[in-house]
Structure formats: C-alpha cells, structure tokens
Amino acid sequence: MADGTTTTTAMKPELDLTHAHWQSGSRGKGDVQIAFVEGFIAMRNGRHPEVPALVFTPSEWRAFVLGARQGEFDLT
Questions:
Q1: Which among 53, 54, 55, 66 is least surrounded, fewest beta carbons within 10 Å?
Q2: Which percentage of the chain shows pLDDT scores above 70?
C-alpha cells in the first residue's frame, strides 16, 4: 500500500513500514529489499516499493533462506 502498511495473516500484526530501514543485497543492486521490524522480516520489491511487502516470522524467514541456499527455488 502506498502508505507503507501491509496486510498480514492472523498470526502476524499489521506492521507500519513507513519508516523501516530497507536493505538491499550485498552489492546494493538488487530489486529485493528486506527490513527487520518489530521482530518480523519484511520483504519488498525495491523497484515498486508501493506494492505491499511480504512479512515473515523469523522461523519462516529461516526456512526461506535455507531453501534458497539449497536451490529449492532454482527454476533452471
């Protein structure tokens, strides 16, 4: 949403991401940005920051990162 908020599931609060500190990949050129907010991890498309962010719990984020490292999302 344009106001910096995101819709979340019942187990996650609605986070105000207006003043979140968004971080890109180590080279700073990635479209994916993450922010650590109130014990959760938010992820957004840096080229379209007005689109709602995805919000992960720490355990969901860990599963995502481990899956990515193991090639789980490799489509080639």
A1: 66
A2: 80
